[in-house]
Design goal:
single chain; about 525 residues; alpha/beta; Rossmann fold; 2 domains; 22 strands
């Protein structure tokens, strides 16, 4: 078996130039990319900035062969190439490190590195493999014990392994999708600094997808900023200020759109969050001392880039995650998000990924609509005898009221479109007579325009009835349209707050990016 070549300047070919020219990608009538062009120069770090949904992932998936562009070209060293798959991209020296770890936890570092190869050898000589791997690790920018099980690695080491797999495959262009989202600031700086050293030595080029202006300023040479599928700005990092990049990313004509809101005659606190702390699934801090009050008849919006503690905060409020410190109150009483307390205080939730977080996919639409009320009259007697006729009748009323498109109420909810699944959850959560608190998290993610308009109207209608609404969203337009107050969450903390009429969009962009 051939020994892996060492990563030394004399033996490693310089990275090629990568051009993406007039890249367009349509999904039906929706245009995700509209004539986007950018160049990754050899031996440079090029940052790709943009809000969620701006088209960043679509662009790099076209470069990697996951998608075929509707129009446009990928050029390697100025030669047009058709890339049908990640294997094709690999043949041109392009590799991608994804936001979520892909290594097998039960296997060792060495086994994962060998597994990452595209060859399909049936027999492996581990003596030869270890000789090659030790030589590779010796000259790589990262040091990891080859015999360590991946499950025992810290997050920073796991991310280093993801990058090492691409270096082991001799990728000369690395596409990094939010590589620091799971890292501490110290780990993030270490990883990017080590990659920067490889770039300076002309061993690598890096296309860095990020939301963090600090990382762009510290490590990138050039930047392309996307907004709604189009190029909003490009240039050298030295020539662009944080303010200029934020304005490009958020747009110059951003303003709150008018919605039919009714001014509340009197407001009182409904939800009070005091010093709440919570951890991520991996045990690292996610929510760090959040304080917040939501009152009757108002929508409080929380903006932020995904992965900054919003999901964990919502899970605490919905009873899906236990806080490590702090207290919650609803209507002035202690609240721990049990089903009984949610029923007593009329707390309802519209979570993201409703099929995973709010529905039982294999159960019918009728049964999912009854999850809140199945043990109460008229749908049950004595809290255990279900009245199936009443459950179906109530479901038919809600399907009609909330315009849920389903063949029948007996249809499994997983058979519905995303918008109709969300309408089903909305019908269940907002059909109660006395809703007092609604917690909505990215309620319109991935939905079409008609579904978005319907859900927005339902949320505003609830607010106008006096419901206190906490709206957590990665869509800044949605928050500017619906919210009465807006806050920004970054690295587990609330770092900005303003009434919507006084919102400073440039400052919001900076805070979202960790500035």
């Amino acid at each position: 078996m051939e020994t892996a070549a060492r990563l030394t300047p004399s033996r490693v070919q310089a990275p090629p130039r990568l051009d993406m020219v007039d890249m367009t990608k349509r999904f039906g009538r929706f245009t995700a990319l509209d004539r986007v062009s950018m160049t990754l120069k050899p031996g440079s770090i090029h940052a790709l900035l943009g809000e969620n949904g701006a088209g960043k992932s679509t662009l790099v998936k076209c470069a990697m062969g996951f998608y075929q562009p509707t129009a446009g070209q990928v050029l390697i060293d100025q030669v047009p190439q058709t890339i049908h798959s990640p294997k094709d991209a690999h043949s041109h020296g392009i590799g991608m490190v994804y936001q979520h770890f892909t290594s097998v936890p039960a296997m060792t570092v060495a086994e994962n590195l060998v597994l990452s190869r595209y060859d399909s050898k049936q027999l492996i000589s581990w003596k030869q493999e270890y000789e090659a791997l030790r030589a590779f690790i010796h000259d790589s920018p990262f040091r990891i014990d080859l015999d360590s099980p991946v499950a025992q690695l810290a997050a920073g080491q796991k991310q280093k392994l993801e990058i090492l797999k691409q270096l082991y495959l001799k990728s000369r262009i690395l596409i990094l999708d939010e590589p620091t989202s799971v890292l501490t600031p110290v780990e993030a700086d270490e990883v990017l600094a080590l990659l920067r050293s490889e770039v300076v030595k002309d061993r690598l080029s890096v296309l860095l997808i990020t939301h963090k202006f600090r990382e762009v300023q510290a490590f990138a040479d050039e930047v392309t900023i996307l907004r709604k599928g189009q190029v909003a700005g490009q240039g050298t990092v030295k020539a662009l200020s944080v303010e200029a990049m934020a304005q490009m990313m958020l747009g110059e004509a951003r303003s709150a759109q008018s919605v039919a809101k009714i001014e509340a005659l009197e407001r009182r606190p409904v939800l009070s969050i005091a010093g709440i702390y919570a951890r991520r699934d991996d045990g690292l801090p996610a929510v760090k001392g959040v304080n917040l009050t939501v009152q009757t008849g108002e929508i409080v919006g929380i903006a932020g880039v995904s992965g900054n503690g919003q999901r964990e905060l919502v899970e605490v409020l919905a009873g899906q995650r236990v806080p490590t410190a702090g207290s919650l109150q609803v209507n002035g009483e202690p609240y721990s998000a049990t089903r009984r307390e949610m029923q007593r205080h009329q707390v309802y939730a519209l979570p993201e990924e409703p099929l995973r977080n709010a529905c039982v996919p294999t159960m019918s639409v009728a049964d999912n609509l009854a999850l809140r009320t199945f043990d109460r009259p008229p749908q049950a007697k004595w809290r255990w005898l279900l009245i199936l006729k009443a459950i179906r009748q109530r479901a038919k009323q809600l399907v009609q009221q909330f315009s849920v498109k389903t063949p029948a109420v007996e249809t499994p909810v997983s058979h519905l479109s995303g918008g109709n699944v969300q309408r089903t959850v909305l019908a269940r959560e907002l059909s109660a007579d006395a809703v007092q608190l609604l917690i909505a998290a990215n309620p319109c993610f991935g939905l079409d325009f008609s579904a978005v308009d319907f859900i927005h109207a339902a949320i505003v209608d609830a607010r106008n009835r006096g419901v206190a609404v906490l709206l957590v969203s990665e869509d800044l337009d949605e928050l500017l349209t619906l919210a009465d107050r807006i806050l920004v969450m970054s690295e587990g903390q609330l770092v900005y707050e303003s009434d919507i009429v006084d919102a400073d969009l440039t400052l919001i962009g900076q805070r979202m990016a960790g500035q």
